[in-house]
Amino acid sequence: MHDPIVPPLAEHGHLALTQSELVAWGERFGRVALPPLVVTMSGELGAGKTTLAQAVCRGYGVADEVTSPTFALVHRYDAPKSPVYHVDLYRLESPDDLTQLGWDELVAEEALILIEWPERAGDRIPHLHVPMSLQHLPHDPDRRLLYAGGHV
Ligand SMILES: Nc1ncnc2c1ncn2[C@@H]1O[C@H](COP(=O)(O)OP(=O)(O)OP(=O)(O)O)[C@@H](O)[C@H]1O
Ligand SMILES: [Mg+2]
């Protein structure tokens, strides 16, 4: 496991990003990301997972508008470096339902794969992935805590 991109034990204040800071961070991550790469994005409703996924896609070179795949579960985009899959598992009822989505083939692709609500997939998230998590701050509605690349 590589070192965390943002130190998980840093003072919370150092990790608290405004939306524009989070977007800038995500775009920068996307610009340097190379396939195959699986990124999980955890955090409660409204924490900013889709906002971050959209920024990563933009930085990676996705030209199309990236919209929340809540109903389709998976959206696929083209980008110069590889295809991009944006997955939202919020409505997945059981990890077993991943099989009919073609999950094992999907996560084996030479692609960038961004997964919201990865907890819903149980143990079917590939072992090698970059975990990111976002949390609300109790006293600052405009900022979110971001953890990335460590054990979260
Ligand atoms: N610092 C911030 N970072 C990200 N989003 C922020 C921030 N501050 C405010 N917001 C707002 O919070 C909301 C985050 O929504 P978003 O859809 O990205 O969350 P989500 O984690 O994907 O939610 P869901 O679980 O419903 O899919 C947006 O309306 C955004 O404008
Ligand atoms: Mg979302």
Summarize the topology.
Layout: H1 12-15, E1 16-18, H2 19-32, E2 37-42, H3 49-60, E3 74-77, E4 84-88, H4 103-107, E5 112-116, E6 130-137, E7 140-148
Parallel strand pairs: 2-5, 2-6, 4-5
Antiparallel strand pairs: 1-7, 3-4, 6-7
Helix pairs in contact: 2-3
The chain binds adenosine-5'-triphosphate and magnesium ion.
The CATH architecture: 3-Layer(aba) Sandwich
Question: What is the count of distinct domains?
Answer: 1
The SS-based structural class is alpha/beta
Strand content: 25-35%
What's the overall geometry?
globular
Total of DSSP H or I helical runs spanning 4+ residues: 4
Low-confidence stretches: none
Fraction in helix: 10-25%
Order of adjacent strands in the largest pleated sheet: 1-7-6-2-5-4-3
Give the end-to-end Cα distance, rounded to a whole number of Å: 13 Å
The top level CATH class name: Alpha Beta
Mean pLDDT figure: 90
Bound molecules: adenosine-5'-triphosphate, magnesium ion
**Total strands:** 7
| Rg over C-alpha atoms, rounded to the nearest angstrom | 15 Å
> What is the CATH T-level topology?
Rossmann fold
